[in-house]
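pasting input
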Amino acid sequence: MDSPIDARPSILMILRFKELTVEFYGRGLDAYASGAQAFTAGEHAVVAQIRRQEQAQIAELRRVLGSAAPAAADPSTFDFTAGTGAPFVGALGAEGGAPYTGALKKEFFKLAQLFGDFGVRFLKALLPVVAAHEAAVGMHGTQGRHAAILRSMRSGAGNTPLTESSTDYTSLIAPWVGLVSGRIFDTAFTGAADNASTQAYIATLVYGVAGTASAPSKSEANQVQEGIGSLKADAFDEPIDTESALAFLARFGVSPA
Amino acid sequence: MRDVQTPLAPDSEHTRPGTTRRDFLRLAGLGGAALLLPSVLTACSEDLVDPRLPANIDLTTDAGVRNFAYLLVQYQWGFYQYVTALGYPGMRALESRTYSEITSQVTSQRSLFAAILPDGIPSAMRFDFDKLGLLDRSRVLEYAAELADTVEAAFHGLLLRARSAETLTLLAKIASVQSRQAAALRDLRDIAAGNANSAQRVAFAADDVVSPQTGSVRILTPADALERLRPYIITTVSLRGA
């Protein structure tokens, strides 16, 4: 990029987001260790690998920020209910205080998917500012890999992980984000999208308003591809707009400062 | 040699007199968006494309950066035409579905570049994937993942070279999809290896592609990426400013 821009505020935002997700994956792994989260060995391996790499990203972001790096965020300030008080609580097993149920793992991976896809769009939106930092550019790719595998974890029928006998990705949760049957995200994100206390509402902050073809989202506005033939939405990941990004992060207790 | 050729854009057909790409596809009974069977291409491609057309790419400009991205996408498109046309014994349903999805995505990406780069590199680059020896399941899965890793790394390398926010954003939209494809293909390899429910299911972002120190995907320069692909590219490619 030609013009020098102070990348530190954007790098700080990435750092804060990574602190949030490292805490989330850590709580999931802790719940597994205590018997409250029934990951398979494969799921555990995936989550642990993602967390390790995000921890490395945090260290690298702190190195880039140098003396401008802030103190680590207080995990108790994170709100994994996304401000709703309930819907995602079950995602964290012991955090929710409830014993394991079949729904628990599904909830965990639903939220993990949102973090994965949000991260792709969020880092992409910040690339014009942080592009001078090779590691930050590379984190964008890693985020894409994490989002894909987290979606794959949800893809099997009944949220069973994909195996050798799997015949297809369950519609809407293939490794990439596209429109299926006019929707961007699946109906497992419960509640009405226009009700701020529902999972569906939180999902709209990542995937766009309503997430339907009839109500095109900001995230799928296709500023570049628009008007060029019938290009598939899943061939292009869209950057998220600042307003939606900050709204999403705020729901989880993350602020720019 | 089976010569895989990416179809020509309407504004850049290089054909013998009286034979257009549309004519060829109609005669072959394939239609504009259908798969081009390698065997068909063997018979006809020599007549359709001037093999002397080079791809000269100036990487000191945004146009050149976009053109290199277009080269990468054309290569991928050609590869998936080859794989889906040939197939292999024992192809699982999920593998077929994944190849189909990726082909569809790459087709869209290729169409975008064809539309926005009317004066760019040839839109009918030619490849020879026979050299890859894609005779069985494991070899196809292995190269598909290797190619995805290479293209992802190359796209992220291009992000470092983009001079305008517009080019950067355009390429970034595709770069993360390449990352998703790479993870999905690597996971297919894990699944095929029996690692679906094992602690070994980490290929999607293993240390050979994601640095354990920085948590970032490894990045390739255009020259290094081209070096990996060049053995299978028939079209002459030259880079400036690599």
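fyi Residues 8-161+171-251 of chain A form one domain.
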